[in-house]
Amino acid sequence: MARRRIKRSAKSGLPPGTLVHIGERRVEEPRITLIRYEGEHFEEHTVSAGQVVRPPRDQGGVVWYHVAGLHDVKILERLGEVFGLHPLILEDILNTEQRPKIDDGDDHIFIVLKGFISTEEPGGDLISEQISIVLGSNWILSLQEREGNRFGTLRDRIAACQGRICSRGADYLAYALLDQLVDGYFAILERMRERIEEVEEGVLERPVPATLHALLHLKREGMFLRKSVWPLREVLSRLERLESPLVRPSTGIYLRDVYDHVIQINDAIDNDRDMLSGMLDIYLSSVNNRMNEIMKVLAVIATIFMPMTFLAGVYGMNFKHFPEIEWAWGYPYLFWGLIVVMGLSMFVYFRKKKWM
């Protein structure tokens, strides 16, 4: 995944609850979408921050405000005023490096988790963004860093009044948002598993430096994915056991299903991490074995040529009297004969020992 540096120094020395955006600016201008539905009635509008109002408790249906873009502090301040959000909650929304967490307020529940996008290019980066969800009595506030159709399928279901969501309350919509995000983790894991299989073939067939880079890239992504998903178990477990009038008992069974999915995802992430660690060991062993084979061949060649080098050194000395120097066939028979015989003898011996 692409590395990025988050400058937290902007918060240094400021009092708690001071609203400062920490992260990247993912959109040009934040956009607020209002979705209101009740039964088969559905309406959707793009509104400004000044048009955001909190629905009365006795109003029927569900009101869903979705905000794409978090860098505008004034919009967050307006949302905090309208929905009565504590400044610390707004601070957590603006800090896009927040770990998954849940806070239970008097009249709302605040949840933070991560959403992921995998680029389509081979070996593409894993892109993450922070998703914040605030659940009220008959309203939902969701905020994400970038524009996108992350909840487009859910919006289409509501518009077509498919399933139970049209007749359920805001707590069921919060479950549906969590469920869609968790289902997206499965898609990320499937794509990562395909890339792991491709790298595994390269490790087993012919490991090259590019294979090592791909292994380390996948290992880094797996660590980040685990860091982002592992705390979600605690979040969903607490949400399921939360004694709050905002979460109806009938929604609990659906939250348990999402919790089970998160358990499966964490198990799959751990399995992939173990697989990558094993592949890294196999890669290093393969490289060492290849190096050992090369060194063995070079050692055998050097050993074969060692006596030849010795003879060449002896007969290359500048002495006038050699017993064989006056013999006409001394050079071809004695010198080259000895070299060829020694070389072939050592070659046959090494082949017999299966050293070559």
What is Rg? 34 Å
Number of helices: 8
The topology string of helices and strands comes to: EEEHHEEEEHHHHHH
The average pLDDT value, as a whole number, equals 85
Write the CATH architecture name of the largest domain.
Answer: 2-Layer Sandwich
Low-confidence stretches: none
Into which percent range does the helicity of residues fall?
40-55%
For the record, what CATH class of the largest domain applies? Answer: Alpha Beta
Description of the molecule:
There is one protein chain. With 356 residues, the chain is of the alpha+beta class. It folds into 2 domains: 8-286, Beta Polymerase, domain 2; 293-352, Methane Monooxygenase Hydroxylase, Chain G, domain 1 (Up-down Bundle). 52% of the residues lie in helices and 15% in strands. The protein has a 7-stranded mixed sheet, with helices on both faces. α5 (209-229) packs antiparallel against α7 (249-314). It is rod-shaped. 26% of the residues are buried. The model has no long low-confidence stretch (mean pLDDT 85).
